[in-house]
Every structure is written in C-alpha cells, then in structure tokens.
Target: TRAP transporter small permease protein
Amino acid sequence: MLSFSLLIDRVNTVIGQIFAWCIVGLTGVVTYEVIQRYVMNAPSRWGFDASYMLYGTLFMLAGAYALSRGSHVRGDFLYRYWPDTKQAKFDLVLYILFFFPGILALVWAGWDFAKLSWMLNETSSFSPDGLYVWPFKFLIPITGVMMFFQGISEVIRCMICLQTGRWPARIQDVRELEDEILAEVQEKGIDETLKDLEKKGIA
Model:
C-alpha cells in the first residue's frame, strides 16, 4: 500500500512542480501590466484575465502537491500534541466524512460547469479582448481528480499509521529553515542545536 501511496505522491509532485512555473509567467504579466498602466499610460486589454488565470492554474494544480507534503493550513494547536495513532484516526474520519464527498461534488459539478463553458465557447467578460475561459474551467474537474487520488494516498498513510503506530515518511522536499531547526532540536536537543547554529553564523 505504501508503494501505491508514494506513486500518487510522485505523480502529483511532478504535476505540481511543473505548474509551479506559472508563478514566473504571472510575475511577468503583472510586471508588464504595471509598466503599461503606470509608465506608458496604456493598460493592456488582456493582462487582468491572464493574471487571474495563471494564478488560478497555479493554485489549483499545485493543491494535490501541497496536500502530499502536508502543507495546507490547518488549526493544529491541539492536533500536533496528539500521538500519531490519534492523529491518524482523526484524519481518517475527516477524509471519509468531509474530504471525499466534497471532492466528488467538485468533480461532478466542475465537469458540468466546464462542459457548458466549452459548448458556449465562453470568453471572459472582464476585459475587452475576452480571452477564452473554457480551457481554464476544465482545470476544475482535473484538480478534483488529482485531489481525490491524493486523498486515497493520505488514507493509506492513516491506515499504515494505525497498524504501525507511526506515520510513514513522506517524500522529502525543500523545507523552511525553521522546520529544519525544529527537526534538529528534536534530534539533538536545544543546547547542541544552538551551538551548531552559532558555528554556522545563524544564531
């Protein structure tokens, strides 16, 4: 089961990392629009549409990747102090009761929403150029499918935790410096960690 879970993680990681490059395009579009609007006094006719489509693409297609890393915002002021098995039970109940019904509704409604947009050859009403929006709307059911499979991966992790008493390791990724320090504190203790940080010139 763990190998299947990691396969889902890897697929969503690749997709998320590819579409994370949308941030470069988004930065370019916003920079261009600011220059055109405030320096050239000639705002573009497509900048607004392009910027929110790029942001939406980044937000949606990186969602499953973020879930695979446990990076979504959560109110974990109590959760973090629970033993692993209690966390797994709590997560499992929430995935079954709320996550999967919500995601299936997203896929179902999103497909109808995108299909209607395609049939109408819908364009944006927010700018004069009226960029096509139906390709963007098809990202809604695609995102739902990605999140559904990532949810399966998370459920597998919960089941493994309940069997072994510990969370299985996630695929390692870039981490914030504070996370690295906290992990080092747990491994070495606060005094030794502070000495190491002083040697590195961080503390």
Observations:
- The chain has a mean pLDDT of 85.
- Residues 176-203 form one domain.
- Residues 84-119 form the longest helix (36 residues).
